[in-house]
Amino acid sequence: MNFFKKESTEKSITQENLSQNSESIQYGTETKNRQYVHPYTKRIKKGSWIFLAVLLIGFFYAFNISTKAKVDNSPAAQEALESHISTTLAPGTKLLQQDGNYVGGDIVISHSSEETTTNLLVWDYAAEDGDYVQILANDTPLGEPFMIKNKPVSFTVPTTGEIQVVGTHDGGGGITYAVHYGMNNTTYFNGMNQGGSNTYTLQRE
User: Reduced to 3 states, what is the DSSP secondary structure of residue 60?
Assistant: First the structure.
């Protein structure tokens, strides 16, 4: 009778030990998993941030490169370099790789347009080197000074009166710029020193 009680007691102790060992093994596994997964997840997050930063930098450089035009070496472009005027070259045409310290002058423009306003495009037809200009229409500033680039900036100006381009900052080599008036579909390639200005007198024929 005692034998059966002893055996039953031993079985109960053995089952209890197995249960505790099982819980201990399970808990140890969970602890081990937590220690293994946590740094792995941390590395994944760190890698994601690095990938995102590289991607953003790539977009930034791609955008900047895409906005810089190639130099036009066509006969029409060569003629425009000599005459500083063109009715055939597209707005945004780049004529020079570097600024050439060209100082132009004021221009009187006669046209037959009946419109009261026209589109004015302004851009740097040489190097994007940090030149800044400000546009005035009949002595009224059309915004703050801005850096001219190969990509044209658009303004709406009156078809009669004076349009002034003021050179507020020279990034090096003189301020070389071009303006295109929609009223006569003509581009004027001009230039000035820092602090200088060019006046375009618009008059209807």
Answer: helix
